Every structure is written in structure tokens, then in C-alpha cells.
């Protein structure tokens, strides 16, 4: 007598709990709302059904499955899958489908995904992230950086997976930071050391280590203000702003984002997180709420960025129930932009203008805004307030590129008559 395969079309696994039907129907509705094509929606639903049937063979339920169940399905079942069609076996397609399913399965009731079976390092990083957000008040972008390098440190230091902080010696910390920083620029090396220090402070906060390990993180020498910030002159700025095709919805959106950065000095993450409610149109004020230093600030909304935003909202922004100001115009349609998507839009604009390939970040636009403000007479305190700097010292670098002001304090060269 042959055993019934979990993905056969007939058999006991055909009986599906009602809540599994609800989850699959929610997945269908979500994909439809995000603008996915019918063929893609059907493929994703088949992948979710494939996963559901495999779970039933393990006496597990679709609604209570965790990230680890998904990982096991992708890495253990799919490579050796003998399930009959139409069960999909393409790794990339199934992974994308289950990523959407995890969102749908865990959002409606606010129930967090089960972490009981997570590896120790993953659980440690999850606790570290909660500390960074709840205790330190750091932004998501800063947390991402610290979690990345802390994860590298833990993974290479405790290769067995079990974290033994009480047996960690100072020389091991010093050697790891020194080795990891060898192939990096001084700025990146400083970030790595800072991330490891932040994690060790988290461990000290819990009473797991003493100060010896904190002092073991080597200081990375870096001369502040040694470089002159790159910025756009008037001609390059005009070329840059004219390269957006504002007759298209995407061009209209990207032009508005560029003006927010080049005239108001906003970061890419701040642009991506702007909401419709953040603009007070009567008072012409933009409220920046989710900032790098978790310090809200209110800025006057200049005429050109305000006009570009209004044009985008009226003529280019797709209909969506979301409240984010700048959204995606491709699938998933209407979802908020990420900081990387904002940077990508600016990189494509740089390429259209013909700027050097190494110009790939949006800080070029932020530096341009600060430089132009200082050249027009703004004080360092005013620049620091607009950019959201905690200290005026951070804004001092812009005095280097205020050439008109530097000429007034420059002494004549000895032996040269004016």
C-alpha cells in the first residue's frame, strides 16, 4: 500500500481549516490591491498552498507557522521536492510568495511571529534591536547598520551558535575589530568599531560583561573636517533639476523628492518617510517626524518644493489608502518608498546628467543645500537647525566652501601687491 503524498490532489490533506482559507483569501486580496497581475497572484497562491500542505504533514498549522518554518520549507523541502504539479518549486518565486504571506499572517491581529525556535544569535540581535529603539531612541537606518556589524561580530566570534559572553576576552574583541577594519576606509572602520561598542554597552546594560570589554574596542583615528564636502554649483544644479520628466507621474515624484533634498537638506530616509499629514499647507510648514536622531523639527516649506509636491499629489500620485507622501508606481503599487529607492531615483538622475559614476549618494544634494544656505548668509546655528544636527560642530565643514566669506578673511600673499 502506497503512502499518500502531502501535495497529491486527493487525500486527507484536502481538508483545510477555515482560518487557512481566510489567510489565503487575505493574500489574494492583498496582492490584488498592490497591483500584481492575475498570473502572478495565482502563482503566489499556489506557492502558499504548497507550503500549507507541507505543514500539515508536520502537524503544523498555516496560521501559526513561523519564519523558521518558512526557512525550513525553502532550504530543506524545495531542493528535494517531489510534489506533483501544480505545486511550484522555483525558489525565487516561492520565497517572494511566502514573504507576502508572512506579512498577511502576522499583521491582522498584531501577533508577533513565534521566536521559540530561533537560533541564539538571531534572538540576541532581536533583543539588541529592541534596546536600540526603546532605550537609545535610534532610527531604523541606524539600527540596521548596528545590527549588521553586531551580527558579523557574533557570527564569527561564536561560530558554534551559542553565545558565551562571560568567556569573551578583550584581545578577541580587539583582534576582530582590527581584522574587520583592515579592508575598509577610516570612516567605515569607525562605524564598525562604534557598532561593536554599542552592542557591548547593551551587554553591560544587562550585567553580562564588565568594562574591560568596552575598553578593548580600538579607537579608529580619523581627522575630522579634513575633506571639503562635494556640492553642486549653480550650473550643475540647474542641469540636475531639468533632467526630470515632470510630464510623467514618476518624473513628477522624483523631481519633488530632489527639490526636498536640494533646497531643504532632507536625508533620503526623511524623504521616504514623509506623510501627507506632515505638511501644513496653510502655514507652509513641513514637519519632519521620523529623523535620524529621533528629534522632530519643523521647517518652512519653500515655494518650489511645495509646488512640486502639490503637483505630484494632484496629478501623479496613484490612488492608495496609504498615508505616505511618496509611493511606488509599480508593484507593489502604492506602497511607501524605501530610502534605497529614493537613492536609486537620484542615481538615475545623476546618470542622465552625466555626473561621475562615483556620485551615487544623496548627501551630495544635502551638502548642496547647506552650502547654498551658508553662502547666502545663514549662520551655522541656522544650518544645524535645518539639517537636524545635534551639534553646530557638525555644520562647521560648510564654512570651507563659502568662498565669498573666505575671501574677506584671507591675508594677501607676502611680496604680492594687490
Would you give an account of this structure?
53% of the residues lie in helices and 2% in strands. By secondary structure, the protein is mainly α. It has three domains: 12-106; 120-216, DNA polymerase, domain 1, CATH 1.10.150; 234-402, Intergrase catalytic core (hpI Integrase, Chain A). A three-stranded antiparallel β-sheet has the order 1-2-3, with no helix packed on it. Helix 6 (140-157) packs across helix 8 and helix 11 (249-264) packs across helix 15. It is globular. The N and C termini lie far apart (105 Å). Mean pLDDT is 81; it is low at 1-18 and 107-117.
Report the sheet with the most strands, covering strand number, pairing sense and barrel closure: 3 strands, antiparallel
If helices are DSSP runs of H or I spanning 4 or more residues, what is the number of helices?
A: 17
Would you count the extended β strands for me?
A: 3
- Name the poorly predicted regions: 1-18, 107-117
Share of helix among residues? 40-55%
The CATH architecture of the largest domain can be given as Orthogonal Bundle
Order of helices and strands: HHHHHHHHHHHHEEEHHHHH
Mean pLDDT: 81
Global shape: globular
Q: Classify the secondary structure makeup into a structural class.
A: mainly alpha
For the record, the CATH class of the largest domain is: Mainly Alpha
**What gap, in angstroms, lies between the N and C termini?**
105 Å
CATH superfamily of the largest domain: Intergrase catalytic core
Q: Trace the largest sheet across and list its strands.
A: 1-2-3
Tell me the count of domains.
3
Determine Rg (CA atoms, Å): 27 Å
Amino acid at each position: 500500500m502506497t503512502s499518500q503524498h502531502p501535495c497529491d490532489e486527493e487525500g486527507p490533506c484536502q481538508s483545510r481549516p477555515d482560518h487557512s482559507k481566510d489567510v489565503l483569501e487575505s493574500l489574494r486580496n492583498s496582492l490584488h490591491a498592490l497591483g500584481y497581475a492575475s498570473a502572478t497572484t495565482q502563482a503566489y497562491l499556489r506557492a502558499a498552498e504548497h507550503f500549507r500542505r507541507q505543514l500539515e504533514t508536520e502537524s503544523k498549522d498555516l496560521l501559526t507557522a513561523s519564519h523558521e518554518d518558512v526557512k525550513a520549507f525553502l532550504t530543506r523541502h524545495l531542493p528535494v521536492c517531489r510534489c506533483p504539479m501544480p505545486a511550484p518549486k522555483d525558489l525565487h518565486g516561492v520565497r517572494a510568495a511566502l514573504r507576502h504571506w508572512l506579512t498577511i499572517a502576522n499583521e491582522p491581529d498584531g501577533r508577533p511571529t513565534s521566536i521559540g525556535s530561533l537560533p541564539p544569535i538571531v534572538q540576541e540581535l532581536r533583543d539588541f534591536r529592541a534596546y536600540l529603539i526603546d532605550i537609545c531612541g535610534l532610527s531604523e537606518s541606524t539600527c540596521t547598520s548596528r545590527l549588521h556589524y553586531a551580527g558579523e561580530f557574533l557570527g564569527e566570534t561564536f561560530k558554534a551558535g551559542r553565545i558565551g559572553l562571560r568567556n569573551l576576552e578583550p584581545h578577541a574583541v580587539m583582534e576582530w575589530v582590527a581584522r574587520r577594519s583592515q579592508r575598509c576606509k577610516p570612516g567605515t572602520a569607525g562605524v564598525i568599531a562604534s557598532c561593536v561598542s554599542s552592542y557591548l554597552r547593551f551587554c553591560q546594560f544587562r550585567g553580562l560583561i564588565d568594562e574591560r570589554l568596552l575598553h578593548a574596542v580600538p579607537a579608529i583615528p580619523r581627522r575630522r573636517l579634513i575633506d571639503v564636502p562635494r556640492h553642486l554649483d549653480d550650473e550643475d544644479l540647474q542641469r540636475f533639476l531639468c533632467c526630470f520628466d515632470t510630464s510623467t507621474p514618476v518624473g513628477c515624484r522624483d523631481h519633488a523628492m530632489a527639490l526636498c533634498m536640494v533646497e531643504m537638506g532632507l536625508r533620503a530616509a526623511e524623504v521616504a518617510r514623509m506623510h501627507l499629514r506632515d505638511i501644513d499647507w496653510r502655514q507652509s510648514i513641513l514637519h519632519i517626524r521620523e529623523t535620524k536622531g529621533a528629534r522632530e523639527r519643523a521647517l518652512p516649506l519653500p515655494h518650489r518644493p511645495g509646488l512640486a509636491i502639490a503637483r505630484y499629489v494632484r496629478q501623479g500620485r496613484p490612488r492608495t489608502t496609504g498615508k505616505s507622501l511618496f509611493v511606488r508606481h509599480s508593484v507593489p503599487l502604492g506602497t511607501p518608498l524605501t530610502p534605497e529607492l529614493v537613492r536609486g531615483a537620484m542615481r538615475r538622475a545623476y546618470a542622465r546628467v552625466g555626473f561621475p559614476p562615483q556620485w551615487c549618494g544623496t548627501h551630495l544634494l544635502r551638502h548642496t543645500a547647506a552650502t547654498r544656505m551658508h553662502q547666502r548668509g545663514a549662520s551655522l546655528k541656522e544650518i544645524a537647525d535645518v539639517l537636524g544636527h545635534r551639534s553646530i560642530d557638525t555644520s562647521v565643514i560648510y564654512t570651507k566652501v563659502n568662498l565669498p566669506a573666505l575671501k574677506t578673511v584671507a591675508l594677501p600673499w607676502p611680496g604680492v601687491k594687490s
